[in-house]
Each structure stands twice: as C-alpha cells, then as structure tokens.
# Entry
Amino acid sequence: MSPPSDDEFENMPPSENVDDVPTVSCSRCNREWNLDYELDELKLGNQSVEQFALDHRRHTGHFPDDVTPWVATCRQCPDGEQFLSEGAARRWARTHARHTTHEVTLEHAGEATILNAE
# Structure
C-alpha cells in the first residue's frame, strides 16, 4: 500500500494521519482504549491522555494504569484533591493553607512534602 498523497493526508481525520494513536489501559476495569475519540471529536491533541485519565477517574473513582496523581491532603480537615500536574497540586495546597492556616501534605510517587501557610 502506498502512502497517502499530501491532499489525501490533509483530508484524513486527525487519528488517521497519526502513526500511533495513544492507548490507555486499566487493569481494574480489564480494558484498553485507543484515544481516537479524544483526538478526532474532542480535538484534544497532546492533552488527550490527561483528559481521558481525568474522565476515567470521574466515572470510575480511580485512574487508569500508569497514571500517578499528585495528592494534596489537608492534615487538619477532611479536604483534599488529586491532580495530574504538580503545578495544579501545589497551587491548591498553597491556596488551602493560606485560607485556612492548615498544613497540607503533597504526595506523589511515594514521596511527601508538607506545605504550610507562609
């Protein structure tokens, strides 16, 4: 099979002109998904894996395989959140500590840091 011409390539749906569409698996759900929908319909590009992981957690209560969230947990009240980026987790932790004067534990990949209001 010959490669598509430039005109054919430009008219293909986004996932068809990509060599390898990302896939995400979840051993808890015993499933694997390719991200054609996130690329073609939602037009998420580089954020497709992150958005799928967030949507998966929202609908199942857990993240797919190979996604390790940043977990911010208040050490005084029951408040806390999970994030996929360090910047968002630190922003939440600093804001919570600033508004409540509570210490917040920030955990990722087995390491923890305590943030306080300063």
Observations:
- The mean pLDDT is 86.
- The beta strands are 23-26, 31-34, 70-74, 80-83, 104-108, 111-115.
